[in-house]
Amino acid sequence: MPIKLKDLFIICESVEKIIQWCFSLGLILDLSGEVCKKCSHGHFGLRKDSSFSNDIFYWKCSNKKCNKKVSIRNGSWFQGHNLSLEKILFITYFWIYKIDQEFVKHQLSICNQTIVDWYNYCREVCIEILEIDSEKIGGENVIVEIDESKFGKRKYHKGRRVEGQWVFGGIERDSKKSFFASVENRTKETLLKLIKDNIKPGTTIISDCWKAYDCLGSEGFEHLKVNHS
Ligand SMILES: [Zn+2]
Questions:
Q1: Is residue 71 domain-shared with residue 85, that is, in the same domain?
Q2: How many domains does one find in the chain?
Q3: Exposure string (b/e) for 82-110, b if CB count within 10 Å is 16 or more?
Q4: How far is the centre of ligand 1, averaged over its atoms, from the C-alpha of 59 (Å)?
Q5: How far is the CA of 31 from the centre of ligand 1 (A)?
Q6: What's the CA-to-centroid distance between 35 and ligand 1, angstroms?
Q7: InterPro entries of this UniProt entry (predicted)?
Q8: Among 80, 93, 203, 229, which lies 20 to 30 A Cα-Cα from 10?
Q9: Residue 79 burial (CB < 10 Å; 0-12/13-18/19+)?
Q10: CA 159 from chain center: how many Å?
């Protein structure tokens, strides 16, 4: 059950609570007791020191000669960002519920660039995950809806800026199994290759009325057009 905003306020009452909550969900790696890779001898424990960083807490090796310190943000959604854990949680929460950027900016006292960057980041990470989790879908008597327009253009791919890539996706109507892929262009050849790579032969494909798909019938698919008007 997704948490309510009032629960998030309670979680964000202190850094301790935020960290404990993040541990419980695996949002922050719990390194307590793990062997330190630097000295292969000491074990990590959570230490509190507000001079270390704004997060107050950090991992410290128990071996006094080693003294290795590790940020609690390592390997997490929070790594490499300057904003407080609290603000990042709120931004992510607001993004999930499609809350207007102006509102979030005002509530969290953050600048325009920050909210734009974070909203893009949330979106990009979700697309990456959808692409990674993609599977070949469809088959005989299965209906798959395809669309390249819904997802629009993306400006980044694997962290680097790109000259507008299209995100193309397909979803099984009944099971909701899906695939997503980024493409440089929307030529007939590109889309047909994507369809063949990601959708099994015999599938009934539903798409908007676009002539690049007219050849699907001769490629072993059944094609039903839907006119979005
Ligand atoms: Zn160590």
A1: no
A2: 3
A3: ebbbbbbbbbbbbbeeebebeebbeebeb
A4: 10
A5: 13
A6: 8
A7: IS1016-like_transposase (IPR053164), Tnp_ISXO2-like (IPR024445)
A8: 80
A9: exposed
A10: 12
Q: What is the whole-number distance in angstroms between the Cα of residue 27 and the centre of ligand 1?
A: 24
Same domain, 199 and 129: no
Give the tokens for residue 28. Answer: 């922050």
| pLDDT > 70? residue 3 | yes
Q: Which domain holds residue 124?
A: 81-133
CA of 160 to the centre of ligand 1 (A): 34
Q: What is the pLDDT of residue 128?
A: 84
Q: Is the pLDDT of residue 160 over 70?
A: no
Tell me how far the alpha carbon of residue 105 lies from the centroid of ligand 1, in angstroms.
41
Distance 14 CA to ligand 1 centre (A): 28
62-89 mean pLDDT: 93
pLDDT for res 20: 94
Q: Do 35 and 58 belong together in one domain?
A: yes
- Together in a domain, 112 and 152: no
Angle subtended at Cα 201 by Cα 200 and Cα 204, rounded to the nearest 5 degrees: 90
Q: Is residue 229 very low, low, confident or very high in pLDDT (cuts 50, 70, 90)?
A: very low
8 A C-beta contact, residue 89 and residue 12: yes
Q: Give tens-digit pLDDT for 14-61.
A: 999 999 999 999 999 999 999 999 999 999 999 998 887 888 999 999
In a domain, 138, yes or no: no
How many angstroms separate the alpha carbon of residue 69 from the centre of ligand 1? 8
Distance 90 CA to ligand 1 centre (A): 34
